[in-house]
Amino acid sequence: MSSQQAAKLIAPFPGWRPRPEQVAQVASPPYDVLSRDEARLLATGNPCSFLHVSKAEIDLADGVASDDPAVYQQARQRWRQWCEQGLFVQDAVPCLYIYRLMTQQRQQIGVVAAASVDAYLNDRIKRHELTRADKENDRTRLSDSLSAHSGPVFLTYRQSRPIDLLVAQLIQSPPVYDFCAADGVQHTFWVVQQEALVQQLVAAFENLPSVYIADGHHRSAAAARVCQTRRAQRSGSTGREGFNRFLAVLFPDSQVNILDYNRVVRDLNGLTGEQFLAAVGERFTVESETAPVRPRQRHQFGLYLAGHGWYRLDLKPGLVEEHHPVGRLDVRLLEEHLLRPVLAMTDLRHDRRIDFVGGSHGLERLMARVDRGDMAAAFVLHPTQLEELFTVADAGMVMPPKSTWFEPKLCDGLVVQAL
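RESULT FIELD:
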C-alpha cells in the first residue's frame, strides 16, 4: 500500500479466507447475537465454525468467564491452527471483496474493505451509539490476541451511482462463495483483485464526505484502541501497517433494512397492572386491543402486559421535540415518558430490569417472555429510520441504547484482515 493509499477512506487488503468447499461450515452469525449456550449448540459437531474463534469460551468450562485470559488464548490457538492446516488461505495480493446477502424479500450488496482508523477518529466514519466498556475491552483483547480483525463492521453510506455501477459490473463475474445459511439467507462473495478495478472503487468511496456505522460500534472502537496502542509501541509508524485499518462492509442506504428493536421489563416498579396503566395514561392514549399490536406510525407503541393482554399506546400531543435529532426518536420518547417516570429506569445501558429483543424474533418472542413470567411487560416500537440515524450522527449526538436492529446479519469468517 502506498502512502497515498494509506490516507484513503478504504483500502484493499490481502484477506485470509476459508477454502470454498468449507466456507458454509466456517461462516457463523456475529458473536453478539448469540448467548454462550446458543453458540455452543450451534457449533457442536462443527470444528470449523468460526464461533470457535469469535466466541471461544464455548470450548471452555462454564465456570470460565467470557473475559478470562484463557478465552483469548484459546481463540488465538484455534486461529493459528486453522491457518497452519490450510483451512484459511491468504490472498496473494491486496483485494477488495463484494458481499451479497439475499433473502426472499430483499438483497443488499456491499464492498468489503479495510476502513481507515483515522477516518473513524476524525469522525468521517460517524458513530451514533455509545459503547460499553466490557464489550469494547473484549473485542480489543480478541483482535490483539489474534493480531487480526475477524468480525466486520457494518457501514452504510448515502447511495452513490458511481459505486452502484462498479458493483453491478463486478458481480457479473463468478463468485468464489455462494451458499445458503441455516437462517435461509443466501451469502455470495466475490474477490476483486484487478488493480485498476480496485483503484476505481477506492476512488469512488473517497468521493463520499462520510460514512456511518450501522452495526459494530464496539468492533470499530476496539480497532481504534488496538491501532493507538500499536502506534505507541512502534516508533516510525508509516500508516500503512494493517493495524491502521479495520475490517468493514459498506452498503448503500437504499438497501439497508432496519427492524424494530423492542423492550421487555422484569417488573412494574411496585405497581399493579391497573396502577401501571393509569400512570401510562397520563402521557399516552391507552386503547385495549384483541390482537398483537405492531405500531403503524411514529410515536405509537404496542404494550403487552402480563395478565391484561395487548394495548395500543399513542403519545399525547405536545410531548415530541420534533426539531431535536434525538428527542423525536421513539426509543427516546418511550424512555422519557414511560420507562423513566413510571418504571424508574434511569440508565438503560446498565439496568438489569430491562432487556432488548430484535424485531426478527417476532412478537411471539415478546409474548412468550411475558407469559412464562420472566417479564412483566413488553413494548413494541416502530422501527428507527435510517435517515434518523444519519441526522443524529451528523449532529454529533448518540441514540439511546439498542435503537436499531439490522437484518440480515453479516457472517463472521468469510474473510479476516491480518494486522
